[in-house]
């Protein structure tokens, strides 16, 4: 995944493991099925090397090869992903709360975690007929441009925050916050209120509201977000339901600050 803060793989020769990972990293939400030539080009490998490594990955189950000779991600990676505490395990624990939130708001619902300098969606529930969104399961976005990203960045350690603030902040719409001074004030407000609001920062017409989810040590481990049309409702009206959802998931994860808090969200 491209990132302004990512380390360039071209800075040094790739190891054997690095070449295997480069083959897998050639795939993305926009490149789900690839030919061998495309894998070779995206991974920066010769056709011979790409063919050998792709064959090894097919045998292991990380890739699958269809009748046309094209490759796609294999199911064995899904089995391994299920072991990640911030992936499928988190989704399973959060699912009842996410469904309550979805049915009570009829808005898009996102469950996200931070991975380095990006926010990754580990679950999305899309509302039919709601505002258009770009996010999908497994997709990554810069932390500064989404509601869940802001909630996570606001509670990240100071060194990480400073690195994000000092890096080029990508603009997605005219309203995307790219001024480090404004972003710094925004993060302080998120910490003060416990709620992040991102209005038309990733897509026009969409406003995101998000709240942090805490783990066993009360550290922020994930964020829950809603996306609605900017003209549909006042974002602050969604604070009670999204806060209840975040606290319910936090309580399930064993967060001391969330104990004794109702976990179910009443329908509106």
Automatic annotation (TrEMBL):
GO terms for MF: DNA binding; DNA-binding transcription factor activity
Residue intervals passing through the bilayer: none
Residues covered by the IclR-ED domain: 76-255
Segments forming domain HTH iclR-type: 14-75
InterPro entries in the record: GAF-like_dom_sf, HTH_MetabolicPath_Reg, Tscrpt_reg_IclR_C, Tscrpt_reg_IclR_N, WH-like_DNA-bd_sf, WH_DNA-bd_sf
SMART domains: HTH_ICLR (SM00346)
Keywords noted in UniProt: DNA-binding, Transcription, Transcription regulation
Matching PROSITE patterns: HTH_ICLR (PS51077), ICLR_ED (PS51078)
Any single biological process term in GO: negative regulation of DNA-templated transcription
Pfam families recorded: HTH_IclR (PF09339), IclR_C (PF01614)
SUPFAM superfamilies (UniProt xref): GAF domain-like, Winged helix' DNA-binding domain
Annotated protein name in UniProt: IclR family transcriptional regulator
Native organism: Amycolatopsis taiwanensis
């Amino acid at each position: 995944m491209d990132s302004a803060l990512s380390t360039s793989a071209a800075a040094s020769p790739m190891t054997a493991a690095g070449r295997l990972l480069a083959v897998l990293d050639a795939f993305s939400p926009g490149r789900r099925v690839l030919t061998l030539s495309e894998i070779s080009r995206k991974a920066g490998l010769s056709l011979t090397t790409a063919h050998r490594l792709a064959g090894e990955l097919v045998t292991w189950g990380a890739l699958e090869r269809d009748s046309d000779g094209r490759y796609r991600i294999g199911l064995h990676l899904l089995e391994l992903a299920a072991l990640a505490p911030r992936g499928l395990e988190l989704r399973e624990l959060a699912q009842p709360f996410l469904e309550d939130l979805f049915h009570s708001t009829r808005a898009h619902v996102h469950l996200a975690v931070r991975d380095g300098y990006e926010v990754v969606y580990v679950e999305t529930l899309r509302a039919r007929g709601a505002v258009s969104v770009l996010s999908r399961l497994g997709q990554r976005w810069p932390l500064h441009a989404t509601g869940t990203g802001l909630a996570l960045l606001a509670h990240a350690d100071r060194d990480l925050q400073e690195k994000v603030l000092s890096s080029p902040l990508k603009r997605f719409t005219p309203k995307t916050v790219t001024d480090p001074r404004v972003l710094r004030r925004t993060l302080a407000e998120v910490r003060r209120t416990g709620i992040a609001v991102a209005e038309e920062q990733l897509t026009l017409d969409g406003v995101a509201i998000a709240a942090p989810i805490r783990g066993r040590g009360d550290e922020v481990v994930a964020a829950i977000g809603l996306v609605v049309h900017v003209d549909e409702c006042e974002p602050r009206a969604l604070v009670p339901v999204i806060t209840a959802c975040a606290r319910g998931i936090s309580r399930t994860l064993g967060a001391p600050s969330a104990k004794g808090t109702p976990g179910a969200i009443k329908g509106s």
